[in-house]
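Exercise 7.
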Amino acid sequence: MIELIRRADSAQGAAIQAKLAELVVAHRVVTVDADHPSPLNGTPLPAIVDDGRVISGQAELEAYLGELGQEVERWRRFQMDACYIDDDGTVC
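Solution. The predicted structure, written as tokens, is:
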């Protein structure tokens, strides 16, 4: 399961949390107080832990969320009972 570790007062953490909710993916949010160190051995927060992989930093988090959004879109395309037009124009 995707785990977001963030500080309570972090605008970036709140934006990532909102994006995960928007994607409607299973995730857990762990909020760390400002006076406590990162539970990820000094990794800057916010951070995402996904299947043992730790993602942190603005560019890495944006790339991860972009890839996750594309993966969710592809997954859902084939999970519904509807016709679709594939990327190459092929109709189901």
